[in-house]
Amino acid sequence: MRVAVLVNLKDNAPRWEGMPEDRWDDLDSPRAPLAICDVLRKRGHEAELFEASILPPYNLIEKLQTFKPDICFNMAESHFGDGREAQVPALLEMLRIPYTGSGVLSLAVALDKTLTKRVLRDHGLPTAEFQLFTRADEPISPEFLNGSDTFRYPLFVKPNAEGTSMGVTEQSVVRTIPELREQLRLQLDRYQQPILVERFIQGREVLVGMVGNPTPNGDVTDGLTFVPILEVDFKAFGEDHVGFYTSEMKTVLSPDNYYYHCPAPLTDEQASAIRRAAAGAFRALDCRDVSRVDIRLDATRNHEPIILEINPLPGLSPNYSDLCLQALAMGWEHEHLVGAIFEAAVKRCGLRE
To answer: Residue 68: which residues within 8 A CB-CB, separation 6 or more?
Structure first.
């Protein structure tokens, strides 16, 4: 098969004066897409890497029409717009080219954290109380307040439509109204988008990776292969660490100083509840082929799994990205993981590998 691997490389991203330093943290280095090309070639396919931009000099539409792929391996994050992760899949659907991973609507909703939480809530899935702010001086939800001047619990502040924990720092947890207003002002100015505020979930943080596609009318977990649950070991970072997954941890730390447990030390009952919550999110957003769900175990509510967000375009850098580390914990080398994702897409699209 002819496979086009589509990606937006960080080195090719647009830049401008005053751009936030972390603006392109969610984009890839060449490492992951080149490794995926190698895997596909080893499996007998003709694979070629393309920068996923229709603008010159990349001219994706013309290059795809020349290459004539049977399927695309989609890793494209795109650059601008609320639904930017859905832009390339929408283009592929216009060109009638199959692709790996979730579809247009799923990708657009998943990038918008507030819309995702509304979908989860409507499906009866556990997500933290939340409010979306477009101005720093908006009234605060009574759900957050004791009376009029104190919070019932700490709140967490982050951009509504970013990945790779962009905007998440030790100042993201706020405990007073002035702290909240200040964080809202800073993040609204920096990221030029609405800001999500939600109840801060105090407890352990686990990541759940899934490959496959749900079985229609089956149990919520049917059709999905779960890689071992990964728990970030915040204690290993020292007593002064903030206790949640920051942008610095995702972009600065190397595998040698990123501390985690995989499989996470969980009882069978806990692991089952976590997997079912993650699979519920996968189904609720109609994800396809692969996703990673981030969950915290609420220490104030009997360690109930609370869904933070779902990532239908998880990183695939060998021996580095969370999903790849999880796959390694069950004996899946990078080649096996990429092959499983590709096979799930090929089967779903009715193609023959």
So the answer is: 2
| Structural domains of the chain sorted by starting position, each given as residue range(s) with its CATH number in brackets | 2-100 (3.40.50.20), 110-126+202-348 (3.30.470.20), 130-199 (3.30.1490)
Burial class from Cβ neighbours inside 10 Å (0-12, 13-18, 19+) for residue 129 reads: middle
User: Can you tell me which residue has the tokens 């699209």?
Assistant: 349
pTM, entire model: 0.92
Find all residues with CB under 8 Å of 189, minimum gap 6, and list them.
none
Per-residue pLDDT of the chain (353 residues; tens, 9 = 90+): 999 999 999 888 888 888 887 777 778 889 999 999 999 999 999 999 999 999 999 999 999 999 999 999 999 999 998 889 999 999 999 999 999 999 999 999 999 999 999 999 999 999 999 999 999 999 999 999 997 789 999 999 999 988 767 778 888 999 999 999 999 999 999 989 999 999 999 999 999 999 999 999 889 999 999 999 999 887 766 655 566 766 566 556 656 667 899 999 999 999 999 999 999 999 999 999 999 999 999 999 999 999 999 999 999 999 999 999 999 999 999 999 999 999 999 999 999 86
CB 196 within 8 A of CB 160: yes
Does an H or E element contain 68, and which?
none
Q: DSSP 3-state assignment of 49? A: strand
Q: How far apart are CA 129 and CA 5, in angstroms?
A: 38
Identify the CA nearest to 98 among candidates 340, 316, 288, 282.
288
Secondary structure of residue 307 in the 3-state scheme: strand
Q: Count Cβ atoms within 10 A of the Cβ of residue 56 and give its class: 0-12 exposed, 13-18 middle, 19 or more buried.
A: exposed
Distances, alpha carbon 227 to alpha carbons 168, 189, 218, in Å: 26, 39, 20
